[in-house]
User: What shape does this take?
Amino acid sequence: MSSQSNQSHQAGEAAGKSGRARILISCPDRSGIVAAVSHFLYEHGANIVQSDQYTMNPEGGMFFIRFEFVLNDLDKELPVIVEDFSRVSDRFEMKWHIFRASRKKRLAIFVSKEDHCLLELLWQWQAGDLDADIAMVVSNHNDMRQLVESFGIPYHHIPVTADTKAEAERKQLELVSDKADLIVLARYMQIISPKFIEQFPNRIINIHHSFLPAFVGGKPYAQAYNRGVKIIGATAHYVTEELDGGPIIEQDVQRVSHRDDVDDLKRIGRTIERVVLARAVKWHIEDRVLVHQNKTVVFN
Assistant: This one.
């Protein structure tokens, strides 16, 4: 798809979403929740066009909702809905967020030397399948500069060493603080500090080269080969202070056999990684993910 075609496609998509909004809700489960929210939206002239619900009962007792609705004159009416909704949310002890469907989330992609996950995101973005704005790519190496800049996307090289890590993170935060809604770690081979994570709670997505929980430490594919595994996979999750222990958004696997050597496992693994990460990013930017404790509910 050419840049001009992509812009036309995205303009058409934006026009179709200009009157749409999404509301995500989590609250203790009890009767009347869906009726109360639906009636509230009806009273305010909104038409529900997509509805998803899930209850954790009898385990946990939590209820989750995602409504997408259409509202004439959204710019004028949405602030009224936000202000008035407290009379419903207070009654049901709700945690809730409303998002405009037309307001694209801004992505900052962090990458090191491996390009497969980055390329998948760039291709989907260029094709109009990833409904977001890629604000920048940040890397601790300069390897991807020419590739990224060929897409017209700013590229920032911030080297990271053991001695400069704190200063590098300060520069990274300065770059992304007001320019990114979501950080995507597309095989970024550095550990993110708790201070950085605090600035983006449940807004940093990482791709892990294993079907978690799995082999820890270095050379996971060599470990997998030595153990004779029969499936390999990848896991996309939100980043928390617990290394590779954040809420899981998406996973996938593929069967392998004794005929596959380490290089085969790496090749198959790269394909799974890029697909799983792209799915997770897509679901996040479409407001399909709710986090409860260390788990996710994904309305995909």
